[in-house]
């Protein structure tokens, strides 16, 4: 048997660790704790990809490697010797590859190769778990009488069956996996409008199928139009084709899970990013490829500034809970993302906006991001039925705790969601409930992402059937089996009340909503009476007395939505003239929305004495005309504050 010396057979160089071995013998296993690296095994020059090692463990000897701290490799073609971060070892022709920088070339991510087949099996099992999650079901009978209104030019006709839509077969298969039998009202209209390429502002209660209503047309359009990723897999900068923005971490995670179900076996890859979670993990996920990005505005802005996400390839933009996005301080961030980055402008991308409520002032802001859009409003589930039974109880502040304990003690089944106004109040109420042998958890903005996810899991599973929450949980979350919503503290705004009670009575199922009313809630009395009246609920006489003391009681509803969460503000403004959309005097803010001084021009315009009161309005001398940051200014003692 021949053994190899320093020169090897035929004078060829043999690495020290192979000297003295029998020729043709397999290399010894790597030392404990090190990872096989490099592409291809030891052997002749130009070794094939035998072991498929992914970026050498600690450097890699190019061809197969032990993980010595070298960048390149000994072997026929040098090989990938590892690399640090995005820098790989050399892939060179000479016998010794250049590799990454000596000393750091092999650090890489120090992870073993992931078998693609095992990875695919694991992903399939995860998707199956998503599909297999208990379906809340939809009581379609409750939807039959739900009113729907559309406005705009040439609105596409709705459909009554998924099979009537121009959807790829892989999507129809996923719809069956989701156990969807027929589209809900918002889906009947939204999907056809989206597939027609139209911009859309849709007003529909959460729980009525909104996520599918915007995901289906986006995904289908990308597939039908032969979408090709602008950036390849493993690219340092992600260039998604679709962007979905949502205000909270929980809602982005929920949308992402739904998107994964809808994109299964389509070749499209959704990714989610949000604050409160480790950025490196999300960046690595982006590097693996991103066709559809679901994000919170803050984390997205961060990644854009880092140069890790670009918006130049965006074909579809969607804002979920758009009224909250534009109303809770996100508006400057949204404008920067949509208007000041490299995203294609209005008219060159398709924009979809969804929310349960769209007040007129929010519609005016949202219109800046849309072109020739369709306004769709679907009546609230419960507006023409008794799906959500609402009770308003008059209590004194010092009676609240005992009233809550008595109320929760009577609930035998289902989950109870209790809303409070402050984070401190949420923690305190959780402790009180727990001390009284009522298992409870809480969720609010000061909790870490891990704590919030644990609280949601515990609540959904029924381990803690009571959850105390601030409004962070009021928007968009789909929590099955919430049978009772309690407004321990009433919100200041009636639209927040609508969003809160929408956590129960979801998808056509029945629910109960109870609110504790104190003297300090008197300013909300008139709006509460309007909501109770339009949803065919019993209005307590004492509440009517509170409302009667409100200025303007008995006049036309200020909400403008009736049984809907909003009415197309363009209907009130078409025709120009005095106060028209862009007309002369009057209009939105005294100077007219676009009239007078106009948007970003002159002294009147958007806020010239209007949104708010006095002479300041929204931004003092107009939104841009002395206003947005100047003059009265956005945030400088303006009505917005």
TrEMBL record:
Keyword DNA-binding: no
Gene3D superfamilies membership: P-loop containing nucleotide triphosphate hydrolases
Domain DEAD-box RNA helicase Q: 160-188
Keywords: ATP-binding, Helicase, Hydrolase, Nucleotide-binding, RNA-binding
EC number: 3.6.4.13
Residue ranges annotated as motif Q motif: 160-188
Top EC class, one word: hydrolase
Disordered as annotated region, ranges: 85-109, 550-569
Domain Helicase C-terminal: 403-547
UniProt-recorded Gene Ontology molecular function terms: ATP binding; hydrolase activity; RNA binding; RNA helicase activity
Biased composition (Gly residues): 85-108
Database matches in InterPro entries: DEAD/DEAH_box_helicase_dom, Ded1/Dbp1_DEADc, Helicase_ATP-bd, Helicase_C-like, P-loop_NTPase, RNA_helicase_DEAD_Q_motif
SMART domains linked: DEXDc, HELICc
Catalytic activity: ATP + H2O = ADP + phosphate + H(+)
Domain Helicase ATP-binding, residue spans: 191-376
Family assignment from sequence similarity: Belongs to the DEAD box helicase family. DDX3/DED1 subfamily.
Name of the protein: RNA helicase
Source organism of the structure: Pleodorina starrii
Upper taxonomic lineage: Eukaryota, Viridiplantae, Chlorophyta, core chlorophytes, Chlorophyceae
